[in-house]
Design goal:
Distance between the termini: 29 Å
CATH class: Alpha Beta
Number of helices: 7
Strand content: 15-25%
Mean pLDDT: 90
Structural class: alpha/beta
Low-confidence stretches: none
CATH architecture: Roll
Radius of gyration: 15 Å
CATH topology: CBS-domain
Order of helices and strands: HEEHEEHHEHEEHH
Shape: globular
Largest sheet: 4 strands, mixed
Number of domains: 1
């Protein structure tokens, strides 16, 4: 059985909730990624409290007239964070992403540590054309 660990992009990095959005954007540029999980730096287990995307920074901060050097990642992230465990099946991954209409999904290990991310590109490499078409239809509907 193919698992989330098999299809994820390993080595995902999170950003502390108290870090500014300009730093988040710089980190995204350095890592060549479009999303960062946000973790509570006060939590010894580094629990995820959200996720921010490059689009969130542009639309939710800059286009709204806010200064990304003064707005934190924690202020921008919203909603209930979603994730999947490393041993989840591809069907479970698709279900989580489709039911929540999300395009990126953090992957956690048995110790609840962030170990990777699954994006649309990762899915494209591991799904059949029919599975991918169904995913796109459900997430973008």
């Amino acid at each position: 059985m193919t698992t989330a660990a098999d299809i994820m992009h390993p080595g995902a990095q999170w950003i502390p909730a108290n870090e500014t959005l300009d730093r988040a954007a710089q980190l995204m540029r350095e890592l060549d990624i479009g999303a960062l999980p946000v973790a509570d730096p006060q939590d010894p287990n580094e629990r995820m409290c959200g996720i921010i995307t490059d689009r969130d920074i542009v639309v939710g901060c800059i286009a709204s007239g806010h200064d990304p050097a003064r707005v934190t990642a924690g202020e921008l992230c919203k909603g209930t964070p979603r994730w999947i465990s490393t041993d989840a099946s591809v069907d479970d991954v698709l279900q989580e992403m489709e039911s929540n209409q999300i395009r990126r999904l953090p992957v956690i290990d048995g110790n609840k540590r962030l170990v990777g991310m699954i994006s649309e590109a990762d899915l494209a490499h591991h799904l059949t054309d029919d599975q991918l078409a169904q995913f796109v239809e459900r997430v973008y509907a």
